[in-house]
Amino acid sequence: MYIGVAISGGVDSLGAILRLKALGHKVIGLHGLFLDQDDDQIEQLVRRMHLTFDALKIPLKILDLRQEFQQLVVKQALKAWQMGETPNPCANCNRLIKFGRLLQHAKDLGCDLLATGHYANIACEDEQFFFAPPSDKVKDQTYFLSLVENSALAQIAFPLNGLTKPQCRQLVQEARCSIPTPTESQDVCFLPKSEDRAAYFEENWAKMGLSQPQEGKIFLYDGQMEEIGTHKGLWRYTEGQRRGLNIPYKEGLYVLKKNLADNTLIVGPRHYLGMLSCSCSNPNIFRWTPNEQLFVKLRYRNQPSTCHVTIKNDRLICQFSEPVFPTAIGQIASVSDSQGKIRAGGIVDSLTMAYV
């Protein structure tokens, strides 16, 4: 089988291509240029990539996807932040770039499948494909994949399913690979350091012709509402946030709610922090069985919560029996069954809070 492998240059993608080669598949590395870097940075990266793949005797193709990445991922995320939402650009990149544009390039090159270094699995029941948890549950990345279109799943492979992260690292070390990009990204790849983000946002919003977010009122809720100050833009906050509020009070304060319609921020003590339901428009459905016991994961690091999930008028509605730690508008709701198999996913666009 001829398999294109999306290569970031890190340990995981190298482990994926080495595993496929060891299984006897014909492979080609596909490295997509996403970030708007200067020519010298790109030239150095491409040189390191070719040195590694020449040593492995594996062909490598460099694909310039910077324009698509800018239009489909960066600008969409910037628009969401400008409106006060909390987007998840990585999930959008998986859907539109890695398993959208990059998958199409692999097919154009004659590849049977596109493989990546994600820790995930694809299962098939009754001729329906869906994501399933990998062997390494700690590194499970199916949450970030739950927006990928169902039609793409039959053309995707995850060679690292069955391996743990340490086993993948050992595989790369035994092959004596030079790792082109040894530093693993732990944040949104195109964003600068947090202290530089205000200037980055302001500059790019101006380039896009978007207005700068306006200041608004901050209310403290501790049984009743009290206006206590002014925020400098809702993009700076997310539901459940505690750090960085810098509001003196008798106990720790959290962001309880962001009212996008009137540009106000509500903060309060931890015991008022809770969400009863959330919903997504145009959900991505993989396999659906009405009235099944389901679970919803609202943030990557959080455990899934038991939830009553329904689909009505093309909306995915998640109702919790008791208040849960809130998600944010723009984040991902990933619905799974008791075995961790992904049944649906969507971008949250509506929240019902428990107390405010």
Indicate the topology.
Blueprint: E1 2-6, H1 11-22, E2 26-33, H2 39-56, E3 60-64, H3 66-82, H4 89-108, E4 113-115, E5 121-125, E6 128-132, H5 142-145, E7 156-157, H6 165-174, H7 197-207, E8 216-221, E9 225-231, E10 253-259, E11 264-269, E12 275-281, E13 284-285, E14 294-297, E15 305-312, E16 315-324, E17 332-336, E18 342-353
Parallel strand pairs: 1-2, 1-4, 2-3, 4-7, 8-11
Antiparallel strand pairs: 5-6, 8-9, 10-11, 12-16, 12-18, 13-18, 14-15, 14-17, 15-16, 17-18
Helix pairs in contact: 1-6, 3-4
Structure summary:
The protein is an alpha/beta fold and 356 residues long. The chain is 26% helix and 30% strand.
Could you name the CATH class of the largest domain? Alpha Beta
Return Rg in Å: 22 Å
CATH topology of the largest domain: Rossmann fold
Which runs of at least 5 residues are low in confidence (pLDDT < 50)? Answer: none
Can you count the helices?
A: 7
Q: Topology as H/E string?
A: EHEHEHHEEEHEHHEEEEEEEEEEE
Q: Spell out the CATH superfamily of the largest domain.
A: HUPs
Going by CATH, the architecture of the largest domain would be 3-Layer(aba) Sandwich
Describe the structure.
There is one protein chain. This protein is α/β, with parallel strands linked by helices. The protein has 3 domains: 2-174, Rossmann fold, CATH 3.40.50; 213-272, SH3 type barrels, CATH 2.30.30; 275-353, Translation factors (Elongation Factor Tu (Ef-tu), domain 3, Beta Barrel). The chain contains 7 helices and 18 strands. It has helices at 11-22, 39-56, 66-82, 89-108, 142-145, 165-174, 197-207; strands spanning 2-6, 26-33, 60-64, 113-115, 121-125, 128-132, 156-157, 216-221, 225-231, 253-259, 264-269, 275-281, 284-285, 294-297, 305-312, 315-324, 332-336, 342-353. A 6-stranded antiparallel β-barrel has the order 12-16-15-14-17-18. A 5-stranded parallel β-sheet has the order 3-2-1-4-7, with helices on both faces. Helix 1 crosses helix 6 (165-174) and helix 3 (66-82) packs antiparallel against helix 4 (89-108). It is globular and about 65 Å long. The model has no long low-confidence stretch (mean pLDDT 95).
